[in-house]
């Protein structure tokens, strides 16, 4: 039973990591990165590392995608402002 859960979790991580690389839009990439963090947290839970899973949930699923989304938003606003000055 446990081996099956590990295989499923690894497949989920590999699939979401591939999707994160394949997506070209930075905003969507951040959302896929959040799903990847969640998949990694599930994998760490299955591997009986709950402390690492909680850290992954906090950093990989919430904080990092949030910072990426805020950065993309700031860059897009700056780009629109610069186009308006031309």
TrEMBL record:
Its annotated compartments are: Cell membrane
One Pfam family name from the record? MbhD
Membrane as UniProt keyword: yes
What is the recorded membrane topology of this protein? Answer: Multi-pass membrane protein
Q: Give the transmembrane ranges.
A: 6-23, 30-47, 53-72
Q: Which InterPro entries match?
A: MrpA_C/MbhD, Nuo/plastoQ_OxRdtase_6_NuoJ
* MrpA C-terminal/MbhD domain ranges (all copies): 12-77
Q: Does the keyword Membrane apply?
A: yes
Q: Taking the first listed entry, what is the main subcellular location of this protein, grouped into a coarse class?
A: membrane
Keywords assigned = Cell membrane, Membrane, Transmembrane, Transmembrane helix
- The protein, known as: DUF4040 domain-containing protein
Please report the organism this UniProt entry assigns to the protein.
Streptomyces sp. 900116325
């Amino acid at each position: 039973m446990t081996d099956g859960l590990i295989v499923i979790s690894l497949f989920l991580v590999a699939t979401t990591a591939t999707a994160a690389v394949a997506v070209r839009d930075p905003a969507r990439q951040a959302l896929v990165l959040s799903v990847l963090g969640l998949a990694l947290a599930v994998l760490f839970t299955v591997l009986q590392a709950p402390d690492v899973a909680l850290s992954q949930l906090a950093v990989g699923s919430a904080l990092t995608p949030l910072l990426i989304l805020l950065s993309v938003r700031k860059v897009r606003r700056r780009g629109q402002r610069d186009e308006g000055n031309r």
